[in-house]
Amino acid sequence: QVQLVESGGGLVQPGGSLRVACAASGFTLSDASMSWYRQAPGKERELVADSLIADRFSPAGGTNYALSVEGRFTISRDNAKNTVYLQMNSLKPEDTAVYYCKARVKGPHFYTTYWGQGTQVTVSS
After folding, report:
1. How far apart are CA 52 and CA 49, in angstroms?
2. What H or E segment, with its residue span, contains residue 70?
3. Mean pLDDT of 14-19
4. Which terminus of the chain is more exposed, N or C, with fewer CB under 10 A?
5. Is 64 left (phi over 0), alpha (psi -120 to 50) or beta?
């Protein structure tokens, strides 16, 4: 059974830092492209960062960031712990949102997408 469990959200002041984590189970992290999305109240869910494996969707693999977070956020993965992280620095009030983890898992015949339940990040003084 696949599970993605986010943790590490909370309240932080503007300019502060926070690290959220996504613990994966039921699949091997090295077989999956992992992404962080966020959704603010009244807004659509948006992609924040990708950590991609080399596959038919992204032959080169690598990491990508939304322009709004580039230089401030860093996505990383620990395959041994089956965990993906999002380090968020220089946080702004507009970073306030529920942050979701997504996995696109490569199987022997097809890909399957899974989502976590989300973790709230609030940036406020």
Report:
1. 10
2. none
3. 98
4. N
5. beta
Task: Provide the pLDDT for residue 118.
Answer: 97
Token readout for 99 is 């942050």
Give Cα separations from 27 to 14, 31, 52, 68, 100 (angstroms). 36, 8, 16, 31, 18
CA distance 41 to 86: 21
Could you report the per-residue pLDDT of 60-94, keeping only the tens digit for each?
A: 889 999 999 999 999 999 989 999 999 999 999 99
Query: Under 8 Å CB-to-CB from 2, ≥6 apart: which residues?
Result: 24, 25, 26, 27, 103, 105, 112, 114
Q: Strand order of the sheet with strand 3-7?
A: 3-7, 18-25, 83-88, 73-78
| Run of H or E residues at 81 | none
pLDDT reading at 54 higher than 90: no
Angle at 75 between CA 73 and CA 81, to 5 degrees: 140
